Structure formats: structure tokens, C-alpha cells
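Hi Prof. W.,

I finally got the GDP-mannose 6-dehydrogenase prediction working! I wasn't sure whether to trim anything, so I left the full sequence exactly as given:
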Amino acid sequence: MRISVLGLGYVGCVSAACLASQGHEVIGVDVNQVKVDLVNEGKAPVVEERIGELVAEAVRAGALRATRDVREAIMGSEVSLVCVGTPSEPNGSLCTTYLERVTEQIGAALAERAEQGGRHTVVFRSTMLPGTCLNLLVPILQKYVGGTAGVDFGVAVNPEFLREGTSVRDFFDPPKTVIGELDPASGDAVAALYDGLPGEVFRVPVPTAEAIKYADNAFHGLKIGFANELGAVCQALGVDSHQVMDVFLADRKLNISPAYLRPGFAFGGSCLPKDLRSLVHAARRADVSVPILSHVLPSNSDHLQRAVELVERTGKRRVGLFGLSFKPGTDDLRESPLVELAERLHGKGYDLRIHDANVSLSRLIGANREYIETRLPHLAQLLADSVDEVLEHAEVCLVGTRDPDVLSALPHGDGPVIVDLVRLPDAEARRAEPGYMGLAW
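And this is what came out:
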């Protein structure tokens, strides 16, 4: 394929050189004449393992050249990869100035190119927040081209997952390939670029592709921060943090796995809240600052409050709650977020009815009974014996369980507002219904 790569920093240079080495005809574009000259001389404008030899070989073979002229690049290519920078503004917001500028130039060139015929696909590889492509960049392209994205020209988002220092290896052995496609033809054009490379390919809506890069980088930062904070606490307590983490990392069932990484309701139970509090307290006693660990429980509380706010937003007063124990299939109410939710709603004067098939006040004993009598002493008045009793009472139903009896009884369309705390199996279909509200989806 004939490909133009706009922006010859790390991402652009590596993408251009690697694509050229795969047999594509690539023209790189940059406003910096020094970078353009270096590429045309067969030299890489960035320092990176293997990139020098790849650039040299590609230029020598006539598969790679560079220019400052966006028009020239667009006119001579079928696909353009936009790899310009999106730095932070002083207030932390995303700077889209370079994206907008190059998009205007691409649009102007596409308007002229349209006379030649043949479809061109614009692929944004720059990191940008969800909504940037469809709400900012596509309108710019359509304004300049005078046509419709997805019809007269293609648009896609293709985030990169290249780590500086190993970016060439990451290109040829990617953890995944993500294609945010405006239309199938746009996605096909991007998929063709990576034909033959390993790793799973995900073809998703454009905003999803934009968000995935942020999910990855936020989690990477969180992991590093977590490891460093835990290391500081371990050091203060006289423990070898690397031994701790060796055992931690060996657990592929719960720790290094998909476990706990699906958006849902707040966590609770007899272990997580208690142990987090103890660890943070130990860190404070040792004068170790642990801002990530110390904010986990406040974050959890804020997430629970989102459910309260969804109920408030309905303006209705009769509320039903399905589920009460902290984990399905148990009657353990200790530090259950659903108990806390019930307490907050009851405290705000909502007329509340609760049903959990595993919870019966007469069967609660020991610490479980003591906890509920302390946190929600009026529980006996709030518990309902059946799913139907809750549905008959409620104008708003909070669903905190996947109990089959509850799922089969939940109405569609007319009926109470459904506030989904667990992502119901039919959540995708329900999202189109006016009476459905998902907590975090």
C-alpha cells in the first residue's frame, strides 16, 4: 500500500520504518526540516533499538522518503497515519492544536485529491480523548473536503502500544491491534496494514479505541505507583518488597488476571476494607506517604455515591433494592456496599424495600447480625419476602444481584426505572430503553 505518515517523532518514525520494511511504500511528513533531511539520508531522527538499520534499509530500497509537504504526501498515498503530538496544556487538558492543524491540511489535500478518484483513509494514531475524532476532527475534514466521512473518505482511530526502547519489537509483536472504525471499509484499510502480524485484532467503535489507550496508560501508572508505595511500606516494616511481589506476581488466578477488572459496584466484605485500612494506618505510623493506597477506600465510597445520585436523578421516592450481601450466594453482610447503599437511601427518607434470597433476619447470627443491627437497625421493616413484592412497591429498582429469579422478573419498557449495579446480561439491549440506567456503562 502507499502510506503517508504525518509526524516523525517516536511513533511516526517507527511506524513509517516498520511499515516500509513490510513492503509498503511510505512517505513521512514533518514540519521539522532536520527530521526530513535525516530520513532522506537514511538516518533515523530518533534513538531506538533497530530503528537506524530499518530506516537505512527502507530508504536504500526506495520504500521510504520524507517531505514537509502534506499535500504531496496525501496525493501520493491511499492511507495516512496521523502521529503528531498531543501534549498537555498547563492546566492538564489535552492540547489538540497540532492535530487540528494537520487535519486541516489533510482535508485541503483530500479536496484536491477527490478529483483523481479513489478513496483515501485518514487514520489517527495520536493519543486523544474519546470524542475528539468524531466531534472535532471529522467535522474539520468534512468542512474542507466538502464530503461525508465514511462515504467520500475513510476515517479510523488506531492507537499505538509502542514502548520507547522496545518500540520496533512492539510493532512486530504487538500485545493487540485496536482499530476504531467509522465504517467497515475504513477498518479494512487499517487491518491491511498489519496483515500477518501476531496478536488479537479488535475492531471497535471510534470512541472505544480512543478510550483504550487511556485505560492502558492509567493502569500502567497505577501498577507502578502501587508497587512503589507497597515497597516503601515493606521497607519501613523491615520486609523485602521484592520477595513479597514475587509471590504476588505468581498468582495468575486473582492478581495478574482479569479478576476484579470489570466495572461494577463498590467492593466490600470482611477483608478488603479492613486490610486496606490496616495497611494505610501502618504506613502512617511509619511516616510513609501512600496517596494511592490511602485513596482507594474514598474512591470506593464515591463510586457507591454514584448509585445514590442516580436514584436522586429520577425524582422518585419508592425504591426497591435487589441484593444485600457483599457477594452473591452468601448471607455475609459485613461491610457490604449494598447495606451501605440501603443505609444512605433510608437516611435520605426514601421508601425502601429490599429482597435478597440469601438474607433472612431470623437466620442472621453472630457478627453478621450485630453488624446489620448497628448499621441498618430497621432492616426487618425493609426486607421483602419476594421479588414481586419489591416490584409492586418500587418506582426505581436497584439491581445488585444476578439472581436468576430477579433477572427473569425484571420488566422491559413500562415499569420501574432500572438502576443496574452489576451490568445485567441484557444490559446492551436495555441501554436503548428510557427506563434503564447503568452505573458505569
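The chain has two domains: 2-206, 299-438. Does that look reasonable to you?

Thanks,
D.
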